[in-house]
Amino acid sequence: QVQLEESGGGWVQAGGSLRLSCTASGRTLSSAWFRRAPGKEREMIAATNSIRTWYADSVKGRFTISRDNDETTVYLQMDSLKSEDTGVYYCAAGRPGGGFNIPVDYNIWGQGTQVTVSS
Question: What CA–CA distance (Å, rounded) separates 103 from 96?
Answer without folding.
Answer: 13
